[in-house]
Amino acid sequence: MGMSFKDVIQSDINQLFIHPQEFGEEHLVDGKTMNVIIDNYEQIEREKRGTNIGEGLFTKQALFYVSQEEFGKLPKIGRQMMFDSQKYLVSDALNEDGIYSISLEAIRS
Fold it and tell me: Can you give 44-63 as a three-state secondary structure string?
């Protein structure tokens, strides 16, 4: 019996999309090393808009992709997450066919 279409997709995700030598890079997410893809373009565009939330505070944002298999359960919006050594809040989290798109927001002065 062969692989199902879903198995093929998951295999592609693991082998190609998150493969560290191709696109992914290792980052520490909640203390666990994972291969993620950081969306720098989207992050730069958001930071250019630099959401000023008053009193000289700005939000620092990050957006990354990680495989569901490696990450585990999709994080809840509003929960705290450590990304490398920085504390963030999850501002958005989507499961796109086995790839999580996770947006983070940190407050800095």
Answer: HHHHHHCCECCCCCEEEEEE
- Residues in the chain, pLDDT under 70: 1, 9-10, 12-22, 41-59, 107-109
79 φ, ψ (degrees, to nearest 5): -80, 150
Measured distance CA(65)–CA(37) in Å, rounded: 5
CATH number at residue 16: 2.40.10.210
| pTM of the entire predicted model | 0.69
Q: SS3 for 12? A: helix
State the pLDDT at residue 28.
94
Report the pLDDT value the prediction gives residue 1, as an integer from 0 to 100.
60
SS3 label, residue 43: helix
- CA 58, CA 108: separation in Å to the nearest integer? 6
Domain limits for position 32: 5-108
Domain count along the chain: 1
